[in-house]
Amino acid sequence: xxxxxxxxxxxxxxxxxxxxxxxxxxxxxxxxxxxxxxxxxxxxxxxxxxxxxxxxxxxxxxxxxxxxxxxxxxxxxxxxxxxxxxxxxxxxxxxxxxxxxxxxxxxxxxxxxxxxxxxxxxxxxxxxxxxxxxxxxxxxxxxxxxxxxxxxxxxxxxxxxxxxxxxxxxxxxxxxxxxxxxxxxxxxxxxxxxxxxxxxxxxxxxxxxxxxxxxxxxxxxxxxxxxxxxxxxxxxxxxxxxxxxxxxxxxxxxx
Length: 255
What we know:
This protein is of the alpha/beta class. It is built from eleven helices and seven strands. The longest helix has 17 residues, at 232-248.
C-alpha cells in the first residue's frame, strides 16, 4: 500500500505530508492526523518500498500533491531532505522531528547490519526489546506510559516486512549530509527535539537552527526520541504554529 493514511480537510487548504520513521507506519502520526486533518488533507505514505533513498523520494513525488507542507520523524525527515533536493519548489515548509541533517556516522554501519540480520532471521521481538526499545523513550517516563508506547512501536515493527526494513537501513546508511540543503531552503522550517533523545543527540538537532536563518527549534522536556507519541499534544501545537507560518508565508522565529 503506497498511501497508508489520507484524511481530508478543506479542499483549498495546503496539504500536509507526514513521513514515518524506521519500522514505523501511519500509527506514529495517529494523533497528528486526527487533529490536523480538520483543516487540511493529511497524507501519510508508506516508506521503504524502493531500494535507494533517491528512488524512494522519486516514487513519493510521483504520487503526492503539486505542493505541500512536509513533516518527517527520524528517518522520515532524512527522506524529507531528499524530497527537497529533488523538488524544492513543491515543498512549502519543512518540520523535522527527532532527526538530523548529518550523514550517518561510519561507526553505525556494523550495528545497523547486525540489526538487519536479526530482523531477517525472525528475531523481531527480541531485537526490539533488547536493542531498540531501551533507547526510544524518556528514561524517566512512568511505567504505564512506556508500556503503552512500547506496544504501539512493537506492533508496527512486527508488521513491517523484512524487505521494507532492509531498504530503510539502506536509506540511513547511504544518506548524504543535508546541511547545505537545509541552509538553502527559503520556506519556514521547524525542528522538534526531545530533550532526552538518546538516539539523536539534542545538540545535533539544535545545530540545524544555526545554518538556516529563521529555522525555529522546539525543545520538548521530559521526552525521548519518539516525540510524536511521547509528547503528542506539544508536537501538534508546535506543528499548528509552523503550518500557520507556512500558509501565510511568514518565517518562524527561532526559539
